[in-house]
From TrEMBL:
Pfam families: Flavin_Reduct. Keywords: Oxidoreductase. InterPro entries: Flavin_Rdtase-like_dom, NADH-dep_flavin_reductase, Split_barrel_FMN-bd. The keyword Glycoprotein does not apply. It comes from the Bacteria. The lineage of its organism: Bacteria, Bacillati, Actinomycetota, Actinomycetes, Kitasatosporales. GO terms for molecular function: FMN binding; riboflavin reductase (NADPH) activity. Coiled coil: none annotated. This is Flavin reductase. The keyword Oxidoreductase applies.
Length: 169
C-alpha cells in the first residue's frame, strides 16, 4: 500500500502562493543590462534559463512595470552576467528600485554592440534579442548568444528565501 504524503493545507492559486513557493526554490543570480537612449539600464534576474544549444539561446523574464522594461522592450542586444558569491552587494544594487546601478562602486565598460558589460563576474554574454513573449504582467525575452566569456573566477551567487547566498560544500 502506498502512503499518501501529508499535503498540508493547499491554497488556491494567487500571486502570494507563487511567491511563497518560489522563495523555496534556489536560483542562480544574473544581471541583465542594455544600452538605452538615456544611458545604461540593468536589473537582477533569477529567471535566467538556457533554451537551446543550436542556436545557443537563453530566456529571462522581466516585469512590464520595471524601470528597465522600456529599454529592454526596444533593445537589439542585451548583456547577461552570471554573478559570483562575492557580488551580493552588486546583486542588491541592481535589484533595488531607484538605485544608481551604474555609478560607483559598480565597475563596467561598453562592450560589443554597445552593451554595458560588468567587470569581475563569473561569466558574461552579449545576446541578440530574438523575441519578447507576453506572459501575464511580464515578458519572456528570448535571446541568441553572440559572444561571451565563461572564465571568471569564483563560485556562483544564489538566491533563496529572499536572501543572497553562496554554495555550501
Amino acid at each position: 500500500m502506498t502512503a499518501t504524503p501529508d499535503l498540508g493545507t493547499p491554497q488556491l492559486a494567487s500571486p502570494d502562493l507563487l511567491r511563497s513557493v518560489f522563495r523555496r526554490h534556489a536560483a542562480g543570480v544574473a544581471v541583465i543590462t542594455a544600452q538605452g537612449d538615456r544611458g545604461p539600464v540593468g536589473f537582477t534576474a533569477t529567471s535566467l534559463s538556457s533554451v537551446s544549444a543550436e542556436p545557443p539561446m537563453l530566456s529571462f523574464g522581466i516585469g512590464t512595470g520595471s524601470s528597465s522594461w522600456p529599454t529592454i522592450a526596444g533593445a537589439g542586444h542585451i548583456g547577461v552576467h552570471i554573478l559570483g558569491e562575492h557580488q551580493q552587494e552588486l546583486a542588491a544594487t541592481f535589484a533595488r528600485s531607484g538605485a544608481d546601478r551604474f555609478g560607483p562602486p559598480t565597475v563596467w565598460r561598453e562592450g560589443p554592440e554597445g552593451v554595458p558589460v560588468l567587470d569581475d563576474v563569473l561569466a558574461w554574454m552579449v545576446c541578440r534579442v530574438a523575441g519578447r513573449v507576453p506572459a501575464g504582467d511580464h515578458r519572456i525575452v528570448l535571446a541568441e548568444v553572440v559572444l561571451g566569456d565563461p572564465a571568471g573566477p569564483g563560485r556562483p551567487l544564489l538566491y533563496h528565501e529572499g536572501r543572497f547566498n553562496g554554495l555550501r560544500d
